[in-house]
Amino acid sequence: MSTLEIKDLHVSVILDDENSKPILKGVNLTINSGEIHAIMGPNGSGKSTLASTIAGHPKYRVDSGEILLDGEDVTEMSVDERARAGLFLAMQYPVEIPGVTMSNFLRSAKTAIDGEAPSLRTWTKDVKEAMGELKIDPDFIARNVNEGFSGGEKKRHEILQLELLKPKFGILDETDSGLDVDALKIVSEGVNRAHQNNDMGVLLITHYTRILRYIKPEFVHVFVDGHMVDQGGPELADRLEEEGYVSYIGK
Ligand code: ADP
Ligand code: MG
Ligand code: MG
């Protein structure tokens, strides 16, 4: 069993050489393997900042607090080291990598994370299977990473990585944005498979409750102005759907 523990985390976004702006103001959160946590909150509350900080994005500076993966502080680790340690962030705006095919990208990522190349036969089979389940066109594997991918294809690609790389914790930032209902279902089923098959812990960050019809969180956290203001079970998401965040603003 693994634990991701965030303790009194304060983070600033670096604007330029001299200026920064505090965004996260004391975030506390503990996620264990096999748990699904949803973080919900209004636009601009700092949800993506939290996700990017966990992943090690250089634009965000940890001012104080800790991010512990199985007791080890990851805040000084590079993005690659965090990935090897078992953290995976599905980016809100995934990047294009010109000249690198999906096939090479996935195999290099798997090799980097596991510390050894996967056996070619099982790997090819695993990739084919996962692509089939995500209803990804077989030609996709020969294309360059994210180049000319539609929004839905990018999301499926993220979930394909999640299924193949088998991280301990998957952080999904607005994975539902821009997906039609069919794509949302396929993507959600992929997250659920990674959760069930690999005991992955999930941090699902979302603005809307739509995705929570397909991915069922046990814990729902309300995030406003850089920190958690409430938490509960799935019923809290239903209440937010009806009432919005108004009652939390300024708390
Ligand atoms: P959310 O994901 O909840 O919508 P964000 O984490 O994206 O919130 O943003 C939180 C706040 O931090 C916003 O006020 C946003 O403008 C600011 N912010 C985040 N990243 C940057 C950045 N790179 N440069 C300037 N401001 C930023
Ligand atoms: Mg965001
Ligand atoms: Mg407050």
UniProtKB/TrEMBL annotation:
Annotated family: Belongs to the ABC transporter superfamily. Ycf16 family.
InterPro entries xref list: AAA+_ATPase, ABC_transporter-like_ATP-bd, FeS-cluster_ATPase_SufC, P-loop_NTPase
Domain ABC transporter span(s) in chain numbering: 4-250
GO MF annotation list: ATP binding; ATP hydrolysis activity
Keywords, sorted A to Z: ATP-binding, Nucleotide-binding
NCBIfam families: sufC
Keyword hit for Chaperone: no
Highest taxon, organism lineage: Bacteria
Chain's gene name: sufC
PROSITE patterns: ABC_TRANSPORTER_2 (PS50893)
UniProt xrefs under SUPFAM superfamilies: P-loop containing nucleoside triphosphate hydrolases
Keyword Ribosomal protein set for record: no
Name by which UniProt lists this protein: Fe-S cluster assembly ATPase SufC
